[in-house]
Specification:
Layout (H helix, E strand, L loop, with lengths): L9 E5 L3 H10 L5 E5 L3 H10 L1 E2 L3 E5 L4 E4 L10 E4 L3 H11 L9 E3 L12 H8 L5 E5 L4 H5 L4 E7 L2 H11 L4 E6 L2 H23 L4 H21 L4 H4 L2 H10 L6 H10 L4 H4 L6 H15 L5 H11 L4 H9 L8
Parallel strand pairs: 1-2, 1-6, 2-5, 6-7, 7-8, 9-10
Antiparallel strand pairs: 3-4, 8-9
């Protein structure tokens, strides 16, 4: 632990999407090297030439300390590794990292989802690919553009020990990016994964013109089912009431900047699933059916998530799904 508690001189950000670029800029400080890796060599060349991610985060310059990189072997220089790739691509990246990341170097996971087939959360995926490597999870109400512009943002960073979580929060936080630390990795992961599915539901309601009252009800009832599921799966209630649970849910259920909300909005307006994504990845579309299966396994009913999964699979259309939810029996709130 002694080596890790020294000020990091090099940080590797793996994934040059909007969020990866924003985090790379946030991590860049005078005298610190930040490697921004992308698998696409042409994209890396553009980043190096333009000093701007015109594909994913146009109009915001890369910080001076950010070095675009296409060789994954450069990760061996890093004192902290941030994995900022989609959940379904994380295993492939983790397998490639085996033998490259130095022992004891923490890997901070910045995806929000559940792996198909295995039902693994992100920490379990990396735990299998990089056994023994310290793992942390970063999640909370944050849009890449806000962070990149230096607008005030607060998120949660959870690690296996309080010491590591606190050190990472200090190493990665900035005057405008406030990191609260936790040891509830499972709670942070489940909150981030489930809220994406609920954001699709809220987007559908908005796209269908159901009104602000319906949107508020979906957020409240969605949080209720998220909390029941997460606690039954081992999360701490206080984590779900925090930034990575309720905070992230409110943000992504109320803004077209959220890819999941935007996907739902397009579905609500009548677009097909193939067209509704508009070429952007929405993690909630992959998470929905797995989330419902996991909730069933612990005996928790998630009617909103189930309706989203049914719409995405084509088992229900939007109108029928709304009818199913409205026809549920009267019950006490809880």
């Amino acid at each position: 632990m002694t080596a890790k508690l020294q000020a990091p001189r090099s940080i590797a950000v793996l994934g040059a999407g909007a969020w990866g670029t924003a985090l790379a800029n946030a991590a860049a400080r005078p005298g610190r090297e930040v490697l921004l890796w992308a698998r696409d060599a042409e994209h890396v060349a553009e980043l190096a030439r333009d000093r701007e991610n015109r594909r994913r985060l146009p109009g915001i310059a890369l910080a001076p300390g950010v070095q675009p990189e296409s060789d994954l072997a450069a990760v061996a220089r890093a004192d902290i590794v941030l994995a900022v790739v989609p959940t379904q691509a994380l295993r492939d990246l983790g397998q490639k990292l085996a033998g490259l990341v130095r022992p004891g170097v923490p890997v901070v996971l910045c995806a929000k989802g559940i792996e198909h087939g295995t039902r693994h959360l992100v920490s379990a995926i990396i735990g299998e690919c990089l056994p023994g490597q310290p793992v942390a999870v970063l999640s909370g109400p944050s849009f890449a553009e806000d962070v990149a512009k230096g607008l005030p943002t607060a998120v949660t960073l959870a690690a296996e020990t309080q010491e590591l979580a606190s050190w990472l929060a200090g190493a990665l936080g900035t005057p405008t990016l406030r990191l609260y630390h936790s040891t509830d990795i499972r709670g942070v992961e489940l909150g981030g994964a489930a809220k994406n599915v609920l954001a699709i539901a809220c987007g559908i309601a908005a796209g269908r013109g159901l009104g602000a009252s319906a949107g508020a009800a979906l957020i409240a009832r969605g949080f209720s089912e998220l909390a029941r599921f997460a606690v039954a799966s081992g999360a701490r209630p206080e984590t779900l009431m925090g930034l990575s649970g309720l905070g992230d849910l409110v943000l992504t259920c109320s803004s077209v900047q959220s890819r999941n909300y935007s996907l739902g909005f397009a579905l609500g307006r009548g677009e097909t699933l193939a067209d509704a994504s508009h070429g952007k990845l929405a993690e909630g579309a992959f998470t929905a059916p797995v989330l419902v299966d996991m909730a069933d396994a612990v005996g928790v009913d998630m009617p909103i998530a189930r309706s989203v999964a049914a719409i995405l699979s084509g088992a229900l259309n939007v109108e029928d799904a709304i009818g199913v939810l409205l026809a549920r029996p009267q019950k006490a709130e809880g």
